[in-house]
Design a protein that fits this description.
This protein is of the alpha+beta class. Helices cover 17% and strands 35% of the residues. It has four helices and ten strands; from the N terminus they run H-E-H-E-E-E-H-E-H-E-E-E-E-E. Strands 1, 2, 3, 4, 5, 6, 7, 8, 9 and 10 form a ten-stranded mixed beta sheet that branches. Strand 3 and strand 4 form a beta hairpin. It is globular and about 50 Å long. The N and C termini lie far apart (46 Å).
């Protein structure tokens, strides 16, 4: 019987640490997800997304001398103005969450999101918000996120306001934070 290829070729990472990254480039993203045309599987939405302001990542070294560490996970943050019903507030927008395919299932999304949310708690907003493809909803639910069952409107180029076709999920950044009812509107492009 052949050895399990995934465990033989992809040994678990030794307790990886998520760190704040000084920058995050297209090359960094390609290091994690490859350089395909649609690494996040959202091209069909036709949406334009904002770059993130803060970046968190996990690097994993292969012990190949000068090649250094490979970036295997990322999460980005951006502080955004929104309205929930008729209440204007801010959220920590989370986006660009990525884990390299060959190291998935090892808790890296939890670690890199945890580092990003720890920082988000220092930014002021009471909630973090992200958009994801429907198949990823169970993963984020396991990580403490809650899907919103309301319309979410986002800006797009040309002063267009469009309904977000991806699933919107939120998580509190403070123990006493309760998400208010009502439709949601981002006063920006989505992140």
């Amino acid at each position: 019987m052949p050895a399990n290829e995934s465990s033989a070729t992809n040994p678990p990472l030794a307790t990886p640490t998520a760190v704040r990254l000084p920058h995050y480039t297209k090359a960094d993203q390609a290091e994690i997800l490859g350089d395909g045309d649609d690494p996040f599987g959202v091209a069909e939405t036709g949406l334009t997304f904002l770059p993130k302001d803060e970046h968190f990542g996990i690097r994993h070294g292969h012990g190949h001398g000068d090649q250094g560490d490979r970036l295997v996970a990322h999460a980005g943050l951006l502080r955004l103005r929104i309205a929930i019903g008729d209440v204007e507030t801010e959220v920590a927008g989370v986006g660009g969450v990525a884990v390299a395919p060959d190291v998935r299932g090892q808790g890296l999304a939890r670690r890199v999101l945890g580092a990003a949310l720890d920082h988000a708690r220092t930014m002021g907003p009471r909630h973090a918000l992200l958009f994801c493809r429907p198949p990823l909803v169970p993963l984020y639910q396991r990580l403490g996120w809650h899907p919103l069952d309301t319309d979410v409107w986002v800006e797009q180029p040309g002063s267009r306001l469009v309904a977000m076709p991806l699933r919107t999920m939120v998580t509190p950044l403070r123990d006493d934070a309760a998400w208010p009812p009502g439709p949601v509107r981002l006063f920006s492009l989505p992140m």
